[in-house]
Structure formats: structure tokens, C-alpha cells
Amino acid sequence: MLADAADTASILAVNRAAGAEGLAPSMRIADARARIGFLQVRTHDPEADANALARLAHWSTRYTPSVAPLDAANGADGLFLDITGAAHLLGGEEKLLADLARRLAAFGLDARLACAETPGAAWAMARFSRTPAPILAAGAEAEALAPLPVEALRLDAETALTLRRLGFKRIGALMGQHRAPFAARFEKALLKRLDQALGRVAEPLALLAPPAVYLARRSLMEPIFTEDAIVEVAGTLMHDLVPALERDGAGARAVRLSLYRVDGLVETLDLALALPTRNPDHVTRMLKLRLNRIAQELDAGYGFETLTLAVALAEPMQAAQVEMSAAGASALEATTRLASLLDALRQRLGQHSVRRLEARARHTPERSETVTLAAPQTLHWPPPRSTRPVLMFPHAEPADVIALLPDGPPQRLTWRGRHHTIAHAQGPERIAAEWWSMQSPAPTRDYYLVEDKAGRRLWLYREGIPGREAAAPRWFVHGLFA
Questions:
Q1: pTM surpassing 0.90?
Q2: 118 with 139: CB under 8 angstroms?
Q3: DSSP secondary-structure letter at 238?
Q4: What would the mean pLDDT of 120-129 be, rounded to a whole number?
Q5: Contact 332, 322 (CB under 8 A)
Q6: Where are the strands (E) in 404-473, listed by range?
């Protein structure tokens, strides 16, 4: 029983035992206690009701991706399931309703179910029909709704009371009447609800999520628990999606695997890919890596009885002409392998652990690149050539350098306490300061790529043009080449 804690409050809902004792919603708690002595009362928690209904809605997507929960915060306690195109998966509407009722009863939930062409008719039949789990044929809404009370139109209490005082107690009494008097006296909701229930006006539903264009589902005879079993079923589901993806010239860029537990909870795994793919083996490998990483977090409970795989994001994947040269084929293969490596790293280390360098429009080398997340993106192979070192220090380190001329290449240098004799030097590459972004421009830099006699390759620069910007220019080591 849900109610406010104070005895002066009224009852909001009763369970079956309380209803058998004659208790009903809107009755004062003090009157209820006077009638039946012992009474258990629970404070109404709208937020908990909404969360519970949301969990049930997510679980209901095992039947159809089109699920719309009613507003539990305002006292509603139901779900709309659009089973168009999904009922045949369970052998028809009757078997679907029977399976749904059986599973809800196993959860300890008393459910009233109905199936109709319109949400309004289904809502009315579920709550007011005396037939258990009725199924209305298309076009039979008017006949089925006619004997039901006007409250079955989802009207507010004041509108329903006014209709009853005017003598309109049944929905059938409203049908065939002139609409103008009702439109003048009542809010537009009355005629709108009537038209929605009869299918004259469409009723859009606020779905949990837009239905996936590519979706595959498997209901299992026995629940599964192991990682290998999950991966095997997921691979089968991906195989089922391939023909539709090929037909549309599309590939999966992101997929969602939903695991429905026997006890009604749902576990979801989202997988993002670097390139669109239709390869089931690649998707299952990535899912296996993901499952390995979250093995301690994934709770199978009493097992998973239904699995669905949806393509959350699809992108064009038209057939590409491979070049006749070996270089063209190797470049395409390298790009695919690079994408596979990126996917594997992201599944093993986490979505935010793999990063990449991104070029920026800056003169100074330390500001010309920034580190960003290696999010799914279009990959290119081979990567563009760069004259920058593999390892660039965050801050250039000072060095003592001997050069033949003030502006000549370095001959010897001392850095980090070690002496280096230069065997080869390439440069200079002059990089001026960004004069437009600072009040006092920094000195000009002359960069050299040098190799000492031990084979070490360093990237260093001279700061300041001799005789113009500095009498004695300073040297810095900025990076190392492999």
C-alpha cells in the first residue's frame, strides 16, 4: 500500500489483500485503520516508482525496441509497447501476451494487458475490460470501447465527473454526438482522446530510444552465463545483420549488445569502432576484449535468456576499388589493420585511455600539436611524413654548443652532463615567433637535426639571430629521433 506517512493523508494505491478488505484509493488512512485494525502503510515515493518503471521499460525491449513508459511521477503505472513487426517472433500476439504475463507474474507483478491498433484503445481495454488480455482486431475499436466508462478515455477527474452529471457515462454515448457543443464546453483533450482511441488521429509515443534500423534478437531455450557463450550468440546476431547492411551499402560504426537477465534486469555493452564494418569476426573479437575487461562488473545473475544486437550508428560502406599495384593493396590492408588495432586498444584500455596527436596552426613546435582522444575517426595510411622528432620534450633543455661560426651548425655539444661530437648536421630550419599573438615576440629559432658519432639523433635549436637578437645565442635540445 502506498500512502503519505501522516494518518490524515489518503491512500494512493492498495495491494490485492487490502482491496479484498474493502480498502480503495482516495480513502483516508484513519478510516482504513478503523475498518481493519492492523494496516501496513508505506510512504509514496514518486522517484522510486519512476525508476522502477524505467527498469521495467528497459526490460520490455526484449519484445520490441519501441517502448514508451507512462509518467510514473504523476501516478501512471503502465507501458506502451509497439509490437508492430515483432509479434511474429513469439508466434503471434496471443503468445506474446501470454509470455509477457507469465514473466511479469514471476517478478511478482500483477499486470493487466491488452492489444489494440491504437494506444488509447489498448490503455482502455487493459484497465476497464472484463476480458483478460483482450486482443482487438483492426477496426473493432468503436464496438469494444462503447460499453466502457468515460474514464477509459484517459480524462482528468473533473472532465469525467462533468460528463457523468450530463448523462454521458459510457464512451458509446459520446459517439455519434455533434462535436460542436463538446468543443465549446470542454477542453480539446476530450475530443482528442476520443479520436486517438478510435484511430482517427495519430498518437505519437515518447519512446525510450528511437528504434534501431538494424536489430537482431535471440531468445534462448536455456539461460547462458559464460563469456564464450555470450560472444558466440553475439557473433550469430552480427551474421544476421550482415545481409541488411550489405543491401543498404552500410557498415556498423557503433553497436549495442543488450543482455536480458532472467530476473528482469538488463545489461548493455556499447562498442564503438574506428571504421564502419560488416565483419562479424571483428565485432566478436572486440566484444570479447570488452567482456574480458569488465568481467568483474558484469553480473549474470541467474543467467541471460535473451540477447539483442543493434547497430547504434551506421555509416556508408560502399565497395572500394583496390589498386592493381601492390602498394595500393598494402595501403588498404594497413588502414584496416590500423583500425583493428585502435579498436582493440580502446576495448582493452578503455574509451578514454587511447590518445593521438592532432596538428594545430601554430609556429612554435611545442604548440603545433595537441593530445586528443583517439575517438572513432576516418583513418589514412600511410600517415603523413613529419620532420619533427618522435619524442619532443614538453620544455626544451639547455645545452652547451660549440659552432665554427656564430650562425653555423653545431660541432660539439654537452647535454645532460654528456659530451657529443657531431658527425652530421642538417639545417637550419628557421622558425619565427607568432608576432600577432604576443606583445613582445620571442626570439627566432634555428633548428638543426644532428647525429653524433654514436648514432644518436637529436633535434636542437639556437635561440636568437647572432648580432641582431642576441650577442651570444643560447642552445636548447628539443627532442630525440628514433
A1: no
A2: no
A3: H
A4: 94
A5: yes
A6: 410-415, 418-431, 445-452, 457-463
